[in-house]
Design a protein that fits this description.
- The complex is a heterodimer of chains A (about 100) and B (about 650).
- Chain A is mainly alpha-helical.
- Chain A contains three helices and no strands.
- Chain A starts with 5 loop residues before the first helix and ends in a 13-residue tail after the last helix.
- In chain B, about 70% of the residues lie in helices and about 5% in strands.
- Chain B has 25 helices and two strands.
- The chains are: A mainly alpha (about 100), B mainly alpha (about 650).
- At the A-B interface, helix 1 of A face helix 25 of B.
């Protein structure tokens, strides 16, 4: 089985990250923003695994990091959704453009 | 003996502390006992010191000469300032020489007699204990000032007597005039004291010592290291600065205005502090630092001119006062001016001799005034009259004091005044400094002062003791004036004895001080006595019982000018209310608009900048995120560029 070159993984990860960043910066819906963040985190995960596989397959750190990131992402999603919920209760909307209480 | 001099000031201090601890509220009647015992001890020690003559080894050619053997000093190092260049040691010590020995005896003797008098005078006052505590503190400070062996210690005691003066002038502090007079005395003398402090610091900085004997050696050898100007100018400046302290304390023109107001204090206080001792401290200071003045002829001439002018000016004011204590106060200023004149003419001996005799006869006159006030409850001469019949002892002692003040043979004032006039007449330094006409003018001024002194003394005595009693609204008719109790008259009699005899010791005093001039010309004596007699006759003609006015006359012309104190007080008042207040308003404006405006401006600017920057705070989460991303991208690009281009 011929291995897929590392460049392919990196390209996929870069595209995924860009889509995530675009979602974070442009989505009006707060849930969409949250989803963008998840995409970015997963792009980072792919990078980790790609480098682990191709550069240091003996070491454990790559996989461990990915597991940590997945855990953190789960926690982040929970906290993020809770925040969105309370935003909705407070403002009656989850459109992030309308939530500008910190405006100077 | 020199080792035990410190006990002389220490005893009254102990008395002060004991009175403060035990006699302030209860047991007030025991307060004078402590102080009188302490002062008797001080007097005994002072007389022993004078009698021991420890300086006899080598006091040779003048008042400003100290001999090294046997050492007249006792000293302890209090603080040593190692970092100062040159190294400076602050010492506590005493110096026993003719000057301090004579002064110690005079101060402790007069203080003792005045305390005895005070037992009667202050009887029944609610502040009886406090009074004697203050007096103890004052005696301590004054004796310490006299005994001190260095300038810094002298300065400390100098301020201490100042604060005692303040406390005692304001002794009846519920009286607004007394409180104001105390404040005035304190503030006015401060003007002089600042100069004195500057002089002390400048001198010690350049000489590296405060000690009188060492300073004397250094100045005699021209070894001073002046830090501005040259040696001679520097010494002159220092001498004038020290003299400014003396001007304030001894109430010389232009800082004389506080002394007449100081008469608001109890009369024994006026006698002790504002006649015999503290105001003479200025004269003592000049005599003590005479070696500096000797090295600065210009300063010495200034001393003479200010002294001569003050003597004349105050004498004219004394002729137009109706308050018996104010007459004496102006007379004191005048006589202090006389002493300064003597010092300035180059004869410390004459100045100190007059200080000594003046201490006795002026303390006597003040105590007599106190006795009179005790009897009639008024200070006003035009409330008195005919008191001589009821108060024979007081009248007689006042006459003795008055004759001594006027300078009539054989009373003490005659000799000391003569010494001063003769020293002015024969003064080389004055002739060199302001020329022959200037010296003659000063001499003429002094003679005029003698005339005026005779006049106002006679006026005071005649108005108070002769003629028919005048109307006195402050004293009911049933209350007949009566002689004071023995506790008051005995000190009067003793002081009268000294006022009579103190001048006879001119010879011995001269011998103590070693030398001095020997040639009082007969002419000077004749002129002085003639002027004094002329003044007395003029006073008699004007105020003899038959023609003396019954009520206070309205002053007009020159009399008005004298009664209004040459308008000097008014000028100061005008200066304070117009110039100083105007300047204060200007400064207040500057403070409000310039200083405060700057602070306000800083706050305003910060606020405007805040308003401008605040627009960037949109509150939009995604905007912030965009900034973060953009920053991360820029940072990444820059880092990559560096990584590519770097080594």
């Amino acid at each position: 089985m011929s291995a897929v070159p590392v460049d392919f993984y990196l390209a996929l990860s870069a595209v995924l990250f860009a889509i995530g960043a675009y979602g974070v910066l442009s989505r009006r819906n707060a849930v969409g923003v949250l989803m963008g963040i998840e995409l970015m985190l997963n792009a980072a995960n792919i990078n980790f695994l790609a480098f682990w596989r191709n550069i240091a397959p003996k070491a454990m750190e790559g996989q461990v990091f990915v597991l940590v990131v997945i855990t953190v992402a789960a926690a982040e999603a929970a906290v993020g959704l809770a925040i969105i919920l309370s935003i909705y209760r407070r403002f009656g909307t989850i459109n992030v453009d309308d939530v500008d209480l910190m405006k100077g | 003996m020199a080792q035990h001099i410190w006990l002389i000031p220490a005893l009254p201090l102990a008395a002060c502390l004991l009175i403060g601890a035990f006699c302030l509220r209860d047991r007030q009647k025991w307060a004078p006992a402590f102080l009188i015992l302490a002062l008797a001890g001080s007097l005994a020690l002072s007389v022993t010191a004078l009698h021991a003559k420890p300086w006899l080894g080598g006091l040779g050619s003048g008042t400003d000469e100290w001999s090294a053997a046997p050492s007249p000093e006792w000293r302890l190092t209090w603080l040593s300032i190692e970092l100062a260049v040159p190294r400076l040691a602050i010492e506590v010590g005493t110096l026993l020489d003719p000057l301090s020995a004579v002064m110690l005896v005079v101060v402790s003797l007069v203080a003792l007699l005045i305390q005895i008098f005070s037992i009667g005078y202050m009887h029944g006052d609610s502040g009886y204990g406090r009074y004697f505590a203050y007096m103890g503190l004052f005696s301590f400070s004054m004796l310490g000032l006299v005994a001190s062996n260095n300038l810094l210690l002298t300065y400390i005691f100098w301020e201490l007597v100042g604060i005692c003066s303040y406390l005692l002038i304001g002794f009846w502090y519920r009286k607004p005039e007394a409180a104001q007079a105390a404040k005035k005395a304190f503030v006015v003398t401060r003007f002089g004291d600042v100069g004195f402090l500057l002089g002390v610091l400048a001198l010690s900085k350049s000489a590296g010592t405060f000690n009188f004997i060492e300073l004397h050696t250094i100045i005699a050898q021209h070894a001073l290291i002046p830090f501005f100007f040259g040696q001679s100018v520097f010494v002159t400046v220092v001498a004038l600065l020290i003299f400014s302290g003396a001007v304030g304390k001894s109430a010389q023109f232009p800082l004389h205005v506080w002394l007449p107001d100081a008469m608001e204090g109890p009369t024994p206080v006026s006698a002790l502090i504002h006649a015999a001792t503290m105001v003479a401290a200025g004269v003592y200071l000049v005599a003590r630092t005479y070696f500096i003045f000797k090295a600065a002829p210009a300063a010495l001439v200034t001393v003479a001119c200010i002294g001569g002018f003050t003597a004349f000016m105050a004498a004219t004011m004394a002729t137009a006062q109706n308050d018996i204590k104010r007459v004496l106060a102006y007379s004191t200023i005048s006589q202090l001016g006389y002493m300064m004149l003597g010092l300035g003419a180059g004869s410390a001996l004459a100045g100190i001799f007059h200080l000594t005799t003046h201490a006795f006869f002026k303390a006597l006159l003040f105590l007599c005034a106190g006795s009179v006030i005790h009897a009639v409850h008024s200070n006003d001469l035009y409330h008195m009259g005919g008191l001589g019949r009821a108060m024979k002892i007081t009248a007689a002692t006042t006459a003795v004091g008055g004759l001594a003040l006027a300078g009539i043979w054989p009373f003490s004032g005659f000799f000391s005044k003569d010494a001063i006039l003769a020293s002015v007449m024969g003064s080389q330094s004055l002739a060199a400094g302001i020329g022959e006409p200037g010296r003659l003018a000063l001499f003429g001024l002094a003679l005029l002062t003698v005339l005026l002194t005779g006049y106002y003394t006679t006026r005071m005595w005649l108005l108070a003791f002769t003629g028919a009693p005048r109307e006195n609204p402050l004293c009911d008719l049933e209350h007949k004036p009566h002689e004071s109790p023995a506790v008051m008259t005995v000190p009067l009699i003793i002081l009268a004895g000294f006022a009579l005899c103190a001048g006879w010791f001119g010879g011995p005093v001269r011998w103590f001080f070693g030398g001095g001039h020997g040639a009082e010309s007969l002419l000077v004596t004749a002129l002085a006595t003639g002027c004094a007699l002329l003044g007395i006759i003029a006073g008699w003609v004007r105020f003899r019982p038959v023609v003396a006015p019954r009520t206070a006359p309205a002053w007009a012309g020159l009399g008005r000018f004298f009664a209004d104190k040459w308008y000097i007080d008014a000028a100061y008042q005008w200066f304070a209310t117009h110039v100083i207040l105007g300047a204060s308003l200007l400064f207040a404006w500057v403070d409000r608009h310039v200083v405060n405006g700057f602070v306000d401006g800083v706050a305003w600017f910060t606020g405007r900048v805040g308003v401008a920057i605040r627009r960037t705070e949109t509150g939009q989460l995604q905007f912030y995120a965009l900034i973060i991303f953009a920053a991360a991208v820029i940072a990444g690009v820059v880092l990559a560029a560096f990584a590519a281009g770097g080594p």
